[in-house]
Each structure stands twice: as C-alpha cells, then as structure tokens.
Amino acid sequence: MVSSLFLFMAVNSLILILCFHLMMTNFTSSTQLLCDDNESSALLEFKQNFVVSQHASDDPFAYPKATTWKSEGEGSDCCSWEGVECDKDTGHVIGLDLGSSCLYGSINSSSTLFLLVHLQRLDLSDNDFNYSNIPFGVDQLSNLRSLNLSSSRFSGQIPFELFVLSKLVFLDLSQNQLKLQKPDLRNLVQKLVHLKRLNLNQVNISSPIPGTFANHSSLSSLFLENCGLSGEFPKDILHLPSLQFLSVRNNPDMTGYLPEFQETSPLKLLVLSGTTFTGGLPASVDNLHSLNELDISSCHFTGLVPSSLGQLSQLIHLDLSQNFFSGQIPSSLENLSQLTFLEVSFNNFAGGAMDWIGKLTKLTHLGLAQINLKGEIPTFLTNLTQLDYLSLEFNHLTGKIPSWFMNLTRLTSLALGYSKLHGPIPSSIFELVNLELLYLRSNDLTGILELNMLLKLKNLTRLGLSDNKLSLQTDTSFNGTGPKFKVLGLASCNLGEFPNFLRNQDELELLKLSNNKIPGKIPNWIWTIGKETLSLMDLSHNFLTGFEQPPVVLPWANLIYLELSSNMLQGPLPVPPSSISSYFVENNRFAGNIPPLFCNLSLLRILDLSNNTLSGMIPECLSNLGNSLSILNLRRNNFNGAIPEACEVGSKLKMIDLSQNLLDGPVPRSLTNCTVLESLNLGNNQISDTFPFWLGALPELQVLILRANRFCGAIDRPGSDFEFPKLRIIDLSYNNFTGKLPLGYFLDWIGMKSIDEDNFTYMQTSSGFATQTYKLYDNYSYSMTMTNKGMERVYEKIPGIFRAIDFSSNKFKGEIPTSIGSLKGLHLLNFSCNSLTGHIPTLLRNLTQLEALDLSQNNLSGEIPWQLTEMTFLAYFNVSHNNLTGLIPQGKQFDTFQSDSYEGNPGLCGNPLIRKCGNPKETSSPPPSTSEQGQDLEPASKFDRRVVLMGYGSGLLFGVIIGYIFTTRKLEWFVKTFGRGQQ
User: Fold this and answer.
1) Residue 451, pLDDT score
2) Are residues 256 and 280 in contact, defined by beta-carbon separation less than 8 angstroms?
3) CB count, 10 Å around CB of 27?
4) Which of 308, 487, 719, 852 could form a disulfide with 462 if both were Cys (CB 3.0 to 4.6 A apart)?
5) Measuring CA to CA, which residue among 199, 228, 233 is closest to residue 214?
6) What is the DSSP secondary structure assignment for residue 425, as one 8-state letter?
7) How far apart are the first and last CA of the chain?
8) CA 868 to CA 320: how far, in whole Å?
C-alpha cells in the first residue's frame, strides 16, 4: 500500500515538472526577441545601394534574395529574411548570405553593412561590385569567422584592416582582380592564425609562400592557384596534420619537390600542375590513403612512376601529363578501380604493353598522347565503354582506324592525330553521334570524304582533318544547317575552292585552309564567318591572287593570328584588327607602303612582311610597338630611306631582319635599347657607316649580318663593355672594311669558343595563345643568307650549334692573328678576297669543328701547315690565288679536295695538282710533332685520333670514306637549311 502511494506521488510530480517545462518553453517562444531595429534598417539601406541585375551573377541558379526583404507588415522581421541568420538568444544578425544574389554596385567604408558588428558569417560571392576595393571598414566586423568575397569583381590591394579579423577561420577572396603585396602573404599568415580554409586563387601575390604556413596546424584547405608565386614551395606544408586540400596550380615560377609522405596524412586533393616542381614522385605516395585527386601535370618531374601509386584505392582523378617521366607506366595502376580520369600524355614513357588499362572500366577520360605507343590502336579500349574523352595523338600508331570505335557510344572527344594511321576514315566513326571533337590530323589517311558524312555529327564543334591525303568533297550548292564549328582544320585536303558550307559558320574560332589548291580571289562572304569569334585564320600556301572587295580593316574583332603567306596576293597590305598578335603575309606580291594603321597594333608580337614588293620608308611609328613586338621581318622588299629608331627602352624585339632592301644611312643607335635582341640582319642594303661596335653591349645578340652594304673603316674594339658576349655568327662580307683583322674580338668572342655538339635546336621564338576552345603553340624560326663553300645559301633555320665568321670581300690586310685558333666552336671561317699576308697559322688546327675554310684570293705565303689534316670535319677548303708554296698536305680530309682549292699558287705542288714536287723523299712525310710551334699546340682530342686510326687501319680508301661519313653526319643540319632550290 505504501509503495503504491509512493509510486502515485512520483508520477504526479513528474507530470507537474513536464507541464512546467512546456509552459516555460511556450512562454520563451512567445517572447522570442525580434531583429534589432538598427540592424534591420542597416540591411535595408545596404540593399538600396545596389541594382538587381541577372548579369551580375554567373551561377545559372542565381536569384535576388534581398528583393524579398520588407520594411513593414508581415515579414518585416529581418530574422525571417532570406539570407539572414540571427542569434536565437539576442536577435542580433550573425550571418548574411547574399552569394549569387544578382547585386550590382559598389561598396565603400561608409556602407551600413559595417554596422552589423555581430556578424560571424558573411558571403557576398558571385555578385558584381564594379571593381571597387575591399573597404577599410571591414575591420568593424571583428566577430567574423567566415568571409567569402569570391568572384565578385573586387579589385586593388587587399587592405591591412582585413587582417585585424583575427577570428577568421574561413577566407575566400578568389576569382577577383585583387593583389596581396603591401601587406603581403607573410603578413596574412602572421595575423590570421586560426585559419582552417584559405582560398586566394587568382590574387596577385607575386612572392614566395612563407614557410610560416607550416605552423598552421589547423589548416585543412589551401588554394593558391595562379597567384604569381615564386621561390621554393615549403615542403613542410605537406606534413600539416589537418591538411586535406592543397592546390597551387599555374604558378610557373614556383619550384619545389615532393617530400616523403607521412602515413597519417589526410590529403584528399593534391594539385601542383603548371609549376616547376622537379625530382621524382616518392614511393611513399602510397601513404596518402585518402587521396581522391592527384594532378602534377605540366611540371618537371622525372624518373620512374612508382608502382606504389597503384595502392591508392580511393583515387578518382590522376594526371601525370606533360612531365619527363620515363620507363614503363606501372601495371599496378590497374588496381585503381575507382579511377574515372587518367592522363599520362606527353612524357618519355617507353610504351610497351598497356592492356591493364582495359580493367579500369569506370574511366571517362583517357589521355595517352605522346607516350611512344606503337603498333595498331590497342583493342583493350573496347572495354572502356564509359569513355567520353580519348586521346592517342603524337604516337607511332600504324594500321587502320578500327570500326569498333562505334561501340564507344559515349565518346564526345576522339583525338588520333599525329601518328601513322592509313587507309580511309571508316564510316562507323560517323555513327558516334555524341562527338564534339574529332582530330585525325597529320596521318596518312586516304580516300574521298563526303561532306554529308560530317553533317551527321550534329554536335561536332572541333574537327581536324589537316595534313593527310584526303580529298574533301563539298557541295557548292549546300545551304543546310550542319554542325556549328568552333575549330575547323582542313589543311591539305585537296580543296579547289572555298567550301560553301563555311558561309553559315558564324561561331568559328579557328579556320585552317592552308596547303590546298584554292585559286582566285578571296570572296566577300569570308568576312562574315566568325565575325565576333574568329581568332585564327590560315589561308597560306594556296593560289590566291587578291580580294573581291578588300575591307579597310579586316572585320574579325578578336583575330589574334593571321596567316596569308605563300600565295600570289596583290595590292595593298590588308590591315588587321587591333587584337592581332601574329601577322604573316610573306611570299606574296603585296605592294605599296606599310599603312599607318599598323602603328596602332599595340598587341602585335610577330610581323612578317618578307618577300613582297612593298616600298617607301619604314614608318617611324613602328617604335610604338616595342613593348609587344618580338619579331620584325621586312626582308626582300623595296623599302628605302634610313632605318628608323625602332627600339625604345624596354623593347621586346628578339629578331630584326631588314635585309635585301634599299635602306641607307647609318645603323640607328637606338638598337642598344633592344636588350633581348638575338638576331640582327641588315645585309644587302646601301647602309653607310663604320662598324657598329656599340652593338657589342647587347647581352643576347647571337647573329649579326651586315653583308653587302657600304660599311667602311677599321674594326676596333673600344672597351670591355662591347664584347659581344654571345655572338656566334657574324657576316661582314662585301663591304669596305679596312685595317687588320680584329685580334681583340677573336679573344673575346666566348660564344664561338664553346663546342656545343648536343645542341640540336634552332634559333626561334616561341609564341602562342589559348582560348577556351583550343591552344596554339607556334615557333617562329630565324633565317639568314650566308656564303658557304663558295655559294650563297639560304638557311631557312639557324641551328643552335652553328658558329661562323665571314669577313670576305673587304680590304683587310696584315696577318691572320693566331688568336683565331681559340674559337674552337667555329664551323665556317671565310677570310677570302682580302689583302691578307703572312703564313696560315698552324693554330688553325685547333678548330676541330671547322667544316668550311676559305682563305682564297689573298696574299698569303709559306706552306700549308700539315697540322690542318687533323681537322677531321673539314669538308670545304679553298686557298686558291695566294702565294703559297711547298707540298700540299696529304691524307684524311685533304684527300677529298679538288685542284681548284689550290689553283693560282705557282709554288704549290703535289696531289691533286698536276705539278709534282722536286724531291718527294724530302717532302712527303710530315714534320715531327715536336716542331718549333709544338709547345703552343693543343693535342687533338681522343675522338679525332680514333677517327684517324679507324680510317688508316684499313687502308687509304676506307679512311677517306670514314672521314666522309663523320663529316656528312655533322653537316646534316646544313643540308636541311639550304632552301628549297638548293637541295
């Protein structure tokens, strides 16, 4: 009975407690604090400062949140407004989310936003604040823990007042036009010590990453993409215990290397692409158990890819492209069963069997370009039915394009270019109705391709068929609605006319119709295609003669690259739009003056007007282009008058070629402002001046051509500031220079002293640009004309290994200085047609790379030094018309020279001349090596001696053949550069 009573009382007490709790809860609810009136007014006034514009936000789902805010009536409590968050206890506004709210206008420090002093979270991302600065008043929001101003068109320096917000845990200032320099990144790291997530993508930082970042143990996310970072990346950042996301992509001046990874690393994303990280990928990469994305593309990584990479079972995205990895791609990657993105293109991989890729059945993106794949297109691709992107370009694939490609029905991008595929394009390719990109360029594909086949691919926007053996048949009457192309490459497609379907292509960005057979005039309708979009037009190497109606200025508003070269175009130069960067019209018949409008092309980098019939004076105003122009080629026209002062301080000109014109006057002194100039060619003009010694101050000048002008006087070296430090090719031939050969320069020209046997590059300037649709990489090769082997030869490309001196056809006198023997890298030396006297220096034997030596038509005397026979690469030797005497040296390369090399020297005897020497027993053997000059001679290299021993171990004939083989191999690059008519 007592226990029942106790239980009854306990239950009643519990009921009373619950009722009291419910009553208090309802009371609290009914008396919940409303939004503070001052804060409500501040928000409404903040709203009034902006215009709502759908164009102010990029998010397709953006909408104007603030338009629902009301000042009175129902819904006037700001705590109920969309995007506003209030503290439940105090009613103060603690959160404001106006991201993607279509706001347009500016913010300044007097904004009522800064009256919301209790704010903890502020998101103004994806609006348009009209490139205003981040206001100084931001420091009033001292309680902020989260600030997102990304993609909102802020600009200018990030103010120091922002660093006062010491409670910040999340900061995103990315995708604006901001800079962080004074204060800088180091200041930010020092002040904001509680940061967990930081995103400064596209903020101009232009400094190294401070090592103090490694002290932020709570940092979990760091994004510093495209910030102009430099210096070495602090590797300890990769050991931060909480770091999950790290991206520093597109900072090309930042170096670094990967440390050994710790087993406890929580990294999920690691992106280093577009930096200069070097070294290898450590085997400890398998410690990154949580890694979902690894992108180290476009870096300088080397070595083997570790097989341990295949243990990252969570990996979804792997990009190793554009590095220097070598060896085999490890088959252990077949274990990455979750992988959807795999890029290994553009490395030094050894190819080999890659059937294991067929097991990665979730792949949607596969890039295998330029990894030395050989044989037919691999059949393992048939397993990858989820692929939407496949690139096999720049390999050694052979055979035909297989018909089973039609089974990869999800493909949107298929790139098979730059291989050795042959046969017709299978019709099954045109069943891939989802294709947006199809690149089959630069193969050996043959057959006739009907335009109607292409029209099946309604989604196709990028098509590359250039440089095959295809014939594209187009219907001139076609007026249908085929695919709208953005990229269209139809070079070398046997086109005999402009395809009519181009009339409707108003979205084109790139059009290549070069190397076809299109004759006649360029039609008027060509100006309407891609009028607002076209950035590249290439009509070169056709039979075009002019324009039906040439416009005053070409109408393509965004044209960057124009190539009209190697046609038969006549009339005045077409004026490109102000957007132009590369302009090529060489090898045509354009006439008249350079239009003044060219002086307004402030973005112009390459201007090639060579091989036309242009005339008049070179406009002085071209100097206005010095801050952009790197190539100026006006060769082989009829320009006259003085050379203008083309170089201002800060000039970016690397190559100037004004040769083969009618220019006169002196060499302009303003050329000393061209501090990055590499090649200067003023040959074949009427320039009257003394030797421009002051060009020796140019630190990068490698090629100086002054041939066939009216230069005169002695060549003196005035001081140590004019040494031509990198000069390796100089041609002063066919002038009126007098005095002695420049002994001092021969001692100073260090660019001719090095032997650079492994340099197989050519002198060129790299250019290019990128749009959202394509990237263009272009190399402009320098060219020149020089006399070699007694013939004038055109070098369409200048090899990086080539070193030459041509002082022929002047009035030099005196002896050949022995200092010439220090220029060991020379390949060509021509002192012919002067008045030189004395002996041929024995020290010439030190020029072991020399392939052409011409000392003809001088007054040289004495014997030909027998030591010259050790010049085993010598292919051309001419000492004719001198006063030389004695026995012609025999053996090695000298056994290949004909009698015309020695004619006009009555005192010479021996082979190959008919005149025999008086006492062969006394003169047939070379003198001993311990001659009077022997102590001054450097011994021939072991390599040279080995050539000699190989030859003479098997008799004279074999020796000549061996010598010829070595010489021919070294001269291969000469043959490639002699020009079309010289082959």
Assistant:
1) 80
2) no
3) 9
4) 487
5) 233
6) P
7) 125
8) 52
The segments of the chain whose pLDDT lies below 50 read 1-11, 13-32, 920-983
Of 663, 671, 654, give the one whose Cα is nearest residue 636. Answer: 663
Q: Would you tell me the crossing angle of helices 956-970 and 942-952 to the nearest 10 degrees?
A: 140
Return the pLDDT at 476.
55
* Identity of residue 869: T
Q: Name the phi and psi angles at 39, rounded to 5.
A: -70, -35
CA 240 distance to own-chain centroid: 34
- The neighbour count for residue 471, using CB atoms within 10 Å, is 13
Q: What is the pLDDT of residue 940?
A: 30
Q: Any bridge partners for residue 148, and if so which?
A: 123, 172
Nearest to 782, CA basis, from 639, 626, 678: 678
Cβ neighbours of 550 (radius 10 Å): 18
> The pTM is what?
0.82
pLDDT at residue 969, as a whole number: 23
Q: What is the pLDDT of residue 187?
A: 95
- Give the helix/strand (H/E) hosting 519: strand 519-522
Give the three-class secondary structure for 4: helix
Q: How far out from the chain centre does Cα 450 lie? A: 36
Alpha carbon distance 349, 619 (integer Å): 51
Around Cβ 479, how many Cβ atoms within 10 Å? 9
Strands 51-52 and 103-104, by their bridges, are antiparallel
Q: Which two tokens stand for residue 73?
A: 């009536």
Report the pLDDT value the prediction gives residue 87, as an integer from 0 to 100. 93
Q: Do the Cβ atoms of 366 and 390 come closer than 8 Å?
A: yes
* Cβ 658 vs Cβ 681: under 8 Å: yes
CA dihedral 712, 669, 636, 537 (to 10 degrees): 160
The answer to whether the beta carbons of residues 803 and 751 sit under 8 Å apart is yes
Of 198, 161, 160, the C-alpha closest to 180 is: 160
CA-based diameter of the chain, in Å?
A: 155
Q: Which two tokens stand for residue 915?
A: 């005149």
- The sign of the dihedral angle between the CA atoms of 44, 49, 53, 56 is negative
Burial of 596 (0-12, 13-18, 19+ CB in 10 A): exposed
